[in-house]
Design a protein that fits this description.
The complex is a heterodimer of chains A (about 130) and B (about 100).
Chain A: H1 5-23, H2 28-31, H3 35-54, H4 58-81, E1 101-103, E2 109-111, E3 121-125
Antiparallel strand pairs in A: 1-2
Chain B: H1 3-7, E1 11-16, H2 20-30, E2 35-38, H3 43-47, E3 51-52, E4 62-63, E5 66-70, E6 76-81, H4 91-99
Parallel strand pairs in B: 1-2
Antiparallel strand pairs in B: 3-4, 5-6
The chains are: A mainly alpha (about 130), B alpha+beta (about 100).
């Protein structure tokens, strides 16, 4: 078993990267650096590749297959699926924000203009849960 | 989150296409004094030019995650547009942006 420590290390890196990302998602530094888990997958794949090159036994090959698959899937999600096209936003720094009136959680209308000359306002647009 | 700002009297308007009931549930869970506003047909999101076309899990249009800081006159002073659905602005950066407006 001891000679398979690189395969085991590769596996732990993969599991640790996924578990760590999910568990620490509420911390902005973790959330905003998804490339960290890709780096862990890449390192895991490298370790497994070296181990496989030195001894093509099944634990090494399995670790290589798993880490390489995670690297490809993670990269595809990160660089393709999760990308938002950079369409030109109408809202711009230095310009007035377009006014609007929308219903709040109780159904009462809230208008942006009603806060003018009162307080600063933070607008947060989010995707929702559908 | 931005609770600290809410307590300082800054108005926080949180906008999504979620129906009101859903937002109300979230509002009570977060115990936050945000205004949860429903932009059901994305009319306002579209006017701001921040629609992520076909970005939803069913291929529907969804808002591009965006945070805007307005001063008292309603002028945009700070803006964060996400270029990945995984990324959100650091709340500390938003707090700093509001603080620079003075109160």
């Amino acid at each position: 078993m001891i000679r398979y420590w690189p395969a085991l290390l590769s596996l732990l890196l993969c599991v640790g990267a996924i578990g760590g990302y999910v568990a620490l998602l509420k911390f902005p530094t973790v959330r905003n650096h998804p490339e960290a888990y890709l780096g862990a997958f890449a390192l895991a794949a490298l370790i497994a590749a070296i181990a496989t090159w030195r001894a093509a036994r099944w634990p090494n090959v399995a670790a290589l297959a798993l880490s390489a698959m995670l690297l490809v899937l993670g990269g595809y999600f990160n660089f393709v699926l999760a990308r938002i096209p950079n369409t030109s936003a109408t809202v711009r720094v230095g310009e007035p924000a377009p006014d609007f009136t929308l219903p709040d959680a109780t159904g009462a209308p809230v208008s942006l203009a009603s806060f003018r000359d009162q307080t600063p306002v933070v607008l947060v647009f989010y995707r929702g849960y559908w | 989150m931005l609770t600290e700002l809410g307590d300082s009297g800054v108005q926080i308007l949180v906008i999504s296409p979620d129906p009101n009931e859903r937002s109300q549930e979230l509002a009570s869970r977060l115990k936050a004094r945000y205004h949860f506003l429903t932009d059901r047909d994305l009319a306002v999101t579209r006017r701001y030019g921040i629609v992520h076309a076909s970005g939803g899990h069913k291929g529907q249009d969804v808002p591009r995650p965006t945070t805007v800081v307005l001063d008292r006159s309603g002028t945009v002073r700070w803006l964060s547009l996400a270029d990945s659905i995984q990324v959100r602005p650091d709340p500390d950066a938003v707090v700093r942006a509001v603080r620079t407006l003075g109160s």
